[in-house]
Amino acid sequence: MKRILYSLLTSILLVLAGVAGYGYFLLDEHLPGTPAVDANTGGQVARGAYLARAGNCMGCHTMRGGDAYAGGRVIQSEFGNFLTPNITADVNYGIGAWSAEDFWQALHNGKSKDGRMLYPAFPFANYSQITRTDSDALFAYFKTVKPVARENQPHDLRFPYNQRILLAFWRALYFRPGVYQNNTQQTTEWNRGAYLVNGLAHCSACHSSRNVLGANGGSHDLSGGALPMVNWYAPSLLAQDEAGVLHWQPAQLQALLKTGVSQHSVASGPMAEVVAGSLQYLTATDIAAMGTYLQALPVSKTAAADMLDKALKAPELGKEQMAMLMQQGASLYKTHCADCHGANGSGVASIYPALASNRAVQMQNATNPLRIILAGGFAPATEANPRPYGMPPFGPVLSDAEVAIVLSYVRNAWGNQASVITAAEVNRYRTAPLD
Ligand code: HEC
Ligand code: HEC
Ligand code: HEC
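That's the C-type cytochrome sequence above. Prediction below.
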């Protein structure tokens, strides 16, 4: 009996690991701006403001149309909704009465002022890597944030996930607090990149698999992860057929991170939010350091992709059927897509992404191109690219079969090669929320 109970609890906790589940921020939001400041100059407060950008604290702790950092933003997860707390300097409702030590305990150790264990929807497993000096700078900055008297609301989580006590198990299984340790075999730049990517910038909160029962719960290996609540897939940063950047020109990678567009790719959806709310404010030096680290990541194929690959594998088509599909696809493409993406899929550099030789289009997991075709998309608005060109939604215009055909075409035209998409697959995304 005890064993059954234990394994039940364990499964619940493994699922809870997925509570690291990430929210998705709508693109039309304009959050209050903070001027970019250099990481290493200026006083402690300015440094803290910069670090808050690197951690994208505002993105989660500000609700639509609300005051900066006053919380109330809903973060959806499979377990219910999290409502982010007020972290302004308000003494009653925010963290105005906190000490630097309380703040450190939250970031480094995932515990609130009163000792409550915090949910990993707050990416403290990443923030734990922050140095005490950086935590103190962040704290100094948050002391200066305009106090807002907005009371926190409780999270709206299903049983048993609403039992905070269960987090003790999650922590025992997955969480080891620890400040980033310099790797002496590597350059200062690589170490700076590793510190940012794995710590403040919490790339692994999305780019790692979290929700496979048992396996990989709590992993931070950047091997790709689904964001099921928002129908996006954060591709593997290790796999060269997904978002690995081993062979990129450093300048192109830096452009993607800093401006959301590069010559060959664009940031969309949640990634566009990351660029708009955080990365665009980082200094060229820090962006370059992140790029150096990303380009040195070990190369591998992703378990997540393999898994989804099997789930999504479309039926094999015969030669004749394939030719017919390509013919119909070409005609739909010409009518609806060629004006922007070019007759031969070559796009217009930094405006309309090329679809030929585009990895995002050919990934086994077709979630992202599918939802972009159905719901449209925007690259992030950044200082460097204030008015990004948009992709109109075709969900209202094309039938499931037409979307399946045109995407299958795009995945197999101009030298592209990827599995065919079925109408049923399109329908799954049409009926799921696409916000
Ligand atoms: C991905 C969304 C997300 C990001 C990014 C994020 N937070 Fe949070 N944060 C949360 C959530 C959700 C909670 C509530 C956790 C809970 O109730 O257990 C939280 C809780 C906190 C708390 C504890 C508040 C309390 O009253 O106990 C502090 C302090 C905090 N965050 C500071 C920060 C700082 C500083 C940053 C940026 C470095 C940041 N957060 C970035 C989602 C986020
Ligand atoms: C909120 C979730 C989230 C976070 C946090 C996040 N990403 Fe992403 N990322 C995504 C999604 C979803 C995609 C796929 C959509 C796209 O291609 O833009 C993506 C795509 C990418 C791509 C491929 C872009 C392309 O078109 O080739 C790179 C590279 C990338 N992310 C790097 C990073 C890095 C580095 C960080 C940390 C600084 C990061 N991401 C943080 C969700 C996220
Ligand atoms: C009005 C111009 C326009 C038209 C018409 C258009 N697109 Fe797009 N498309 C864009 C833009 C701009 C983006 C970048 C959006 C973003 O960053 O989220 C894009 C992105 C995409 C992507 C994602 C590429 C990537 O690298 O992530 C796919 C796939 C795509 N379009 C396919 C199509 C298909 C198929 C059609 C026709 C049914 C079409 N587009 C019609 C402008 C257009």
